[in-house]
Amino acid sequence: MAKLRHENRKKANSSGGGETNGVHEKLAQDIVIKIENFNAEKEAANMELQGKKDAFLAGESNVREMAL
Length: 68
Hints:
Residues 28-55 form a coiled coil. There is one protein chain. It contains 2 helices and no strands. The chain has helices at residues 2-15, 18-67. The protein is rod-shaped and about 80 Å long. The chain starts with a helix and ends with a helix.
């Protein structure tokens, strides 16, 4: 990503579009932040789901033992 930003900055500076590049860089950073936030939320949801699954399996095991 840093290499891509460097190349984009280099192209913008050579074409005189330095300000435009700043806007694009900001948008790219915003997109990366949104992706990272999404991935963090997804991981938290997966952990919560795993906890519920573990609790369910433990409860199922207890019911099975009580039935015997």
